[in-house]
Amino acid sequence: MLSEHLVNVGRINVFLPPKVLENGWNPRKAADLPFELPIDVPEQTPVSVAERPDCTMLTLPCSLLQGERSEGFIPLEADELNESLPTTIICRKCNSKLATVSSWKNLPASNWQEFIDCWACHTETPAVVSANPFLPTFAPASVCFALLWSTYANIKKVNPLKLEDEMPFANGIVKNKIALCYNCGEEVGGIEENDPPASIRVHKFAIKLLNLNYPPLVIFSSTLLSLRKQYSVHKFVILSGDKKLWVWCMTPYLNISLFKPCSALSSSTKLPVMKLMFRREAKDLHFEGDDWMDIVLPKPLFCLLQETLKVTNKLYPASARKIGPWRVGLVPLHKE
């Protein structure tokens, strides 16, 4: 089935089909295992075997220092993109060109405008403000630039845009404040009320950048880790239209090996993943305080996430698939 490296515990768990030892195979050390583990261990590492009704579980000790931690990793940041300008943004679904960006800047936070008094220099002359490279809302009019956050890029146009029911943005269309690819009609972003004027918010999940093509679920899982690290948030409501998915970021990082290929994750045998608890219904949840954070996803990514969690849930033994009303699933953390 699968094996997982518990980096904070110093242990490798291997889950195999039940009664697998009835054929006479009885592993005593790591050298006796005919499959790959998430990390390399000495051949003489002892193996403990436990028979359960739904699986055979093997346990191996390992060093706490093995494996790399990747918490806080966010793909597609300004420093990375500014190394090769201009940047061409294309639709992930059909590869049609949507926009070209000449300059990138990182936003300090997703709700950065609420905190602008804490980090903006106040002057009475806009020209002075626009000369400050750390103030992304005032950029030279001759530059098509973009502001980056973990889940989206806010692209500011040279020519001012009007908030109408339907209008062009570069090679896309904005209809009812939703940005669509002009070629395939895929939703790629939209206009938010508090965003800078003459700008379009584009979801990182819905686009590709030439030579920098991170899978959508990589960006999603990296976003959760970033939010978890910066704000100590571990409970999320994933939204797409009227659909909701409740996610609990319980175990943020694992190295796993899949014994059977799982198309929802990767064709490779070793894969860094995030382990999540999830459920579709919220009727038994108790909301006390504002400790749930909303994340809005385009419909295609929402469906991909939901299907990935559902498929990977089946990789676990039945006893680990469901904890109360919750289920357990995996999403990729970063590309190989």
TrEMBL record:
Molecular functions per Gene Ontology: cyclin binding; ubiquitin conjugating enzyme binding; ubiquitin protein ligase activity
Domain of life of the source: Eukaryota
Record organism: Schizosaccharomyces japonicus (strain yFS275 / FY16936)
Name of the gene: ipa1
Name this polypeptide is given: mRNA processing protein
GO annotation (BP), single: protein autoubiquitination
Annotated GO CC locations: cytosol; nucleus; ubiquitin ligase complex
InterPro entries registered for this protein in UniProt: UBQ-conj_enz_E2-bd_prot
Annotated coiled-coil segments of the chain: none
Entry-linked Pfam families: HECT_2
